[in-house]
Amino acid sequence: xxxxxxxxxxxxxxxxxxxxxxxxxxxxxxxxxxIEKIFHxxxxxxxxxxxxxxxxxxxLVEVVIATWVMSxxxxxxxxxxxxPVRNAFGRQFWVGIGWGMSIASLVxxxxxxxxxxxxxxxxxxxxxxxxxxxxxIIVNLTIGFSEELTFRAYLLTTLxxxxxxxxxxxxxxxxxxxxxxxxxxxxxxxxxxxxxxFSLFVCLTLxxxxxxxxxxxxxxxxxxxNIFFWSGQNAGEFAVGHLFETQxxxxxxxxxxxxxPETSWMVFPVIALMFVVFDRLYPEKKFPARGPxxxxx
Length: 297
Hints:
The chain is mainly α. It has one domain (2-83, 90-281). The chain is 65% helix and 6% strand. The strands form three sheets. Strands 1-2 form a two-stranded antiparallel sheet. Strands 3-6 form a two-stranded antiparallel sheet. A hairpin with a 2-residue loop joins strand 4 (233-234) and strand 5 (237-238). Helix 7 runs antiparallel to helix 8 and helix 8 runs parallel beside helix 11 (267-281). It starts with a helix and ends in a 16-residue tail after the last helix.
C-alpha cells in the first residue's frame, strides 16, 4: 500500500495534485456559496470591467490559498512553483508587457493591412477615458495573475514532476484551450487552437526565464491590447469602456468575427514567430530549478 501513495521522494505527485485540486474546488464552492447568499450579485455584461475583475479576483485568491497550503505541506517556497514574489513587477514583467502589447498590435496591424480593421474615432473621452484606462489595466493584471497562477504554477510544476515538463505543458495547454472553448459563448476551433498555443508559449517562457513574471505581464498586456486599446470583440461583445470606435470589415477568418482578433488567422503566423524569437533570445533552461524535491511523510 505504501508504494501506491509514496515513492523515494515522499507522497507521489498525482496524489498531491488531487489534494490541490480538491482544495481549489472546495474553496471555489465555499466562497461562491457565501457570495451568492450574502451579496446576491447582479448579472452583468461579460466584458464589464468591474464584474470581470471580481470574477477573476476570486479564483486568484482561492488558488493562492491552495498553493500556500501545499507549499506548507511540501516545505517549498512560492518561487519553486514559478510564482514571482519579490520580482513580480521586476524587469521580466515589463519585458512581458512589451511583448504582449507588441504581439497584439502586430496581429491588429496584419488584419488592417488586409483591410479588416479601421479606427473611426474615440469611443470615450475626458474623465471616462482615464477611468476606464486605469480600470482595464487593473482588471487585465488580475486576469494575468489569476490565469497564470491557476494553470501554470503549482499545477504545471507538480504535473511536470510526474510526467515531464513538456508532456505536462501540452496537457495543460489542451485543458486551457478546452476551458475557453467550452465555457465561453460563440466559440470556434480557432479560439481553442489559439489559446492552447498561447498557453504552450507561456510554458516556454516559464521554462526559459525561471518564473511567471514575464508570462503575467505578457498575458495582461495581450488582453489589454486586444480588448481595451485596439477595441476588439471577445465572446461576441465589445468591452464596456473600450477606447476606440472601430470597424471590422472582411471575412471571419481575417477579423475573427464575434470572437475578435484573437481568433483571426493572422494570429497563427504571429504565434510561430513568437516561439522562434523567444527561443533565440532565451536559450537557457531555468525552470524548474535544480534542488530537493518535495518530501511529504
